[in-house]
Design goal:
The chain contains ten helices and twelve strands. It is of the alpha/beta class.
C-alpha cells in the first residue's frame, strides 16, 4: 500500500481526502502477526517530497514490552514512531509505502478511523505540552471527547486513577484545579503521561520524553515507564544509550533511514551483530 499526504488534516476520522491510496489489498496481502506481537511495520518506506526518510523498515513490536529506538540525529527514529499513529498524515508532501499492522489490521487501510486509532496508540512528546487547562481538565479532556464517563463520579475515578498510575496523584491531589502549566517540567511530563493513559490506550509512543528534564525528573519518568510497560506496549525514541539499556526490553538501531539491527537490548549492546551497531553503542560514532 502507498499513501500520499499533501496537506494538514488533523481531525479526520477516516482516511483524509488529501491522502491517495495506491494499490489494493489483493496485491498487498496482509500477513498475520504472532500472538506476542502488538504492532509491526512491513516494508515501511517514507518520503518527504522526493527525499526518502525511511527505507523498507520491517520491525515487530512485542506486546507489553518496551522497544527503544536508537541512532544518530536524522536517522529516521522520529519519522518511524510518527508512522505508528499516523501523525505523518498532517505533514505536507509526506508519502508512505508499506503497512503498519496493529492486532492484524492495517492502520493505513482507507476505512481506518484515525481518531479511534490515536486513542489506541497514545503519544508523549519530547517537550511536556500540557493544555492551558487545570490539572484535572488536562486528564479529563480525552475521556470527555470519547464519552468514557457517564457522570462526574466516573470522570473523577478516571482522572484520579490516571494520575495515580502516572505517579503524580500524591503531589497534586490538593490542587487539581491549578493550571497544568504551573507544575515543574518533570511533573508536566507525568501529567502528559496521565493524559495519554486516561483514554485507555494499548500502545504508548514516547519521543525522547526525558530530553528536556533534569536527572532527578528523568529517573522518576524512567521508573514510571518501567511500571507502565507491564500494562502497555511502549516504544521510546532516545538518544541516551544508558537510558535505552536501563528501560528497554528490545532495541532497534536506525542509521540513515534504515533499520540496521533489532533484538534483545542486552544482545544489541553486548554482542551486536552488525559493525555499524557496535560502533554506535560503543561511542565510536555518534
Amino acid at each position: 500500500m502507498q499513501i500520499e499526504c499533501a496537506s494538514n488534516n488533523n481531525d479526520a476520522r477516516v482516511m483524509p481526502s488529501h491522502i491517495r491510496v495506491i494499490g489494493t489489498e489483493e496485491n498487498n496481502p496482509r500477513e498475520t502477526t504472532g500472538a506476542d506481537i502488538k504492532m509491526s511495520a512491513r516494508e515501511l518506506t517514507v518520503f518527504y517530497g522526493h527525499k526518502p526518510a525511511l527505507h523498507a523498515v520491517n520491525l515487530a513490536l512485542p506486546r507489553n514490552r518496551l522497544t527503544a529506538l536508537i541512532g544518530p540525529s536524522g536517522c529516521g527514529k522520529s519519522t518511524f514512531i510518527r508512522c505508528l499513529n499516523r501523525m505523518n498524515d498532517v505533514i505536507g508532501g509526506c508519502r508512505i509505502e508499506g503497512s503498519v499492522i496493529l492486532d492484524d489490521e492495517d492502520i493505513y487501510a482507507p476505512s481506518r478511523d484515525v481518531v479511534q486509532l490515536r486513542t489506541r496508540v497514545g503519544m508523549v512528546f519530547q517537550k511536556p505540552n500540557p493544555f492551558p487547562k487545570s490539572i484535572y481538565d488536562n486528564v479529563a479532556y480525552g475521556p470527555k471527547v470519547h464519552g468514557m464517563a457517564r457522570n462526574r463520579d466516573e470522570m473523577d475515578a478516571i482522572v484520579l486513577d490516571s494520575l495515580e498510575r502516572a505517579g503524580l496523584l500524591d503531589e497534586v491531589r490538593d490542587r487539581l484545579d491549578a493550571p497544568g502549566t504551573s507544575l515543574s517540567g518533570g511533573q508536566q511530563q507525568r501529567l502528559c503521561i496521565a493524559r495519554a493513559i486516561a483514554v485507555q490506550p494499548e500502545v504508548i509512543l514516547m519521543d525522547e520524553p526525558c530530553s528536556a528534564l533534569d536527572p532527578i525528573a528523568t529517573a522518576r519518568i524512567e521508573s514510571l515507564i518501567a511500571e507502565l510497560k507491564t500494562q502497555y506496549t511502549i516504544v521510546i525514541v532516545t538518544h541516551s544509550m544508558q537510558q535505552a539499556r536501563r528501560v528497554s526490553d528490545k532495541t532497534a538501531y536506525f542509521l540513515m533511514g534504515r533499520l540496521v539491527e533489532h533484538g534483545d537490548t542486552e544482545q544489541v549492546f553486548e554482542d551486536p551483530q552488525d559493525d555499524r551497531t557496535r560502533d554506535y553503542v560503543t561511542g565510536r560514532i555518534g
